[in-house]
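Deliverable D4.2, example record:
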Amino acid sequence: MFVWRKIMKSRYLLGFFVLLFSFLVSMETLVLANNNISAEEAKRLKVFLKRRLGTNLPQDAKIEVKGYEKSPIAGFKKGTFVVESSRGSGEASFLISDDGRYIIFGEPVNTQEFENTGVAGIKKGEISLGRQSVPVLISSDGKFLILGELIDSTVNPLEETMSKISLNDVPVKGDKNAKVTIVEYSDFQCPFCKRATDMLPQIMEQYKGKVKLVYKQFPLPSHPWAKDAAVASVCAYKQGNEKFWKFHDLVFEKQKEITVENSKDKFRAFAQQIGLDTKKFEQCVNSKEASERVEGEIREGMSVGVNSTPTFIVNGMTVRGATPEGLKAAIDASLSGNI
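Output generated by the structure prediction step:
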């Protein structure tokens, strides 16, 4: 049995396409990646996609149609739109009926691969929406589908969340023995993360001795130089915790001056400015290890529900966005001992 990812008919439609295509400005070129689709059909799909996404598409984009072939669903083919521009890239999988009339953005999910939950009558799986996985439950007889997860109410959800977050060998600011741990998942190119960076010193001062701040990497795919910045900051951290925070502050301070074209030169200059060993820094930036650490922190963030930046986890409670009120409320709740 297959369940269709009906993104076009779901409440995730707008967020899915804005995330995928907001960095584009228009569609000018369609390149066929294989010979399984005719030029006429490719042109028709191009027009359809332009009309469907409208102003969410930007201007120096190159589009490829890949994997246009038979799908596991009878009467449907499958394919992928691959979109690239100077500002980023993204993919959108689709199913299309053999007669070309009906299109579904998404992929089929094989529910036969769902796993047992340990609870009679219920199996579990997941549906991927961009970088986020949505948990799904299905009855053993296949009649009922639930978008949600099976949760053990006897387990403290705050402790469970914190157990998924590594606090070893991480950039930290504040009293290491503080009662409250704030974990920030952030993106150096994100303007709201810049706002959070400006907001946090006052909060750290207000709760001095009571909170500590841990920084985690979560560069968004729509921000083309964000991952390079994340890797560079990991390499700054390799030379000391204080070096990391100096690099962190400098990148956010100069955020508006950084472009895709000048980013690597900027990061080298920042490294030199804060007194890093530039040879070691360059070796680290070009290493697989630094990139893998960033990817690992992205996966960790996703495992605790992070899908936007900045996101703060305060002793297991999630606070989304640069909102001082929300952050303070979570800190106060943690300090009160009532949760």
